[in-house]
Amino acid sequence: MTVYTSHKESTVQETSPQSAQDDNLSFSPFKGKADAPVVISVFSDFQCPACARLAPVLDQVLEKYPDEVKLVFKNFPLPGHKYAKMAALAAFAARRQGKFWEFHDRLFANFDKLSDVKLLEITQELGLDPERLEKDMQDLVLVAEINKDIRLGARVGVKATPTVFINGRIAKRKSLEELQVVVEQELERAKK
Question: In the chain, N or C terminus with fewer CB closer than 10 Å?
């Protein structure tokens, strides 16, 4: 197993050849350029406080590297979080109305208040069709996609959320500065 290091200590650990960005990305929501040389895949849970804190940090990385980074969202709702899977379904249903990232941001802003009522409030705030959203949340295609994310996460070693992969390698540290170090390393690797 290859390990890449930063100025402090190991920040990225290589995973198996079947990496997080190689599987099921066609369905996954992403920001950034589709063909960016650096792919950051984040396995997240909408009720996770650490995930809520990381989301704006990842946006800052994308802001700094708009042409070099693709940020991919992967669902990994934890069993102990009662509304995490429902929130994931709601976000994917909102995607069908063109509002995934807006819904994503509102879910994280309310990670500690998620409920049926809060999901409806977010739906209304974003001007989404609530009946369509509810119908889409029942769609087995969306359920299957979320379950694929969960299985993929388990297969590549996700044990907690958030888990961040950068070009298939687990990022152990997740501060803005440390993520930028790893992105720079990956950009250097891409040049070779």
Answer: C
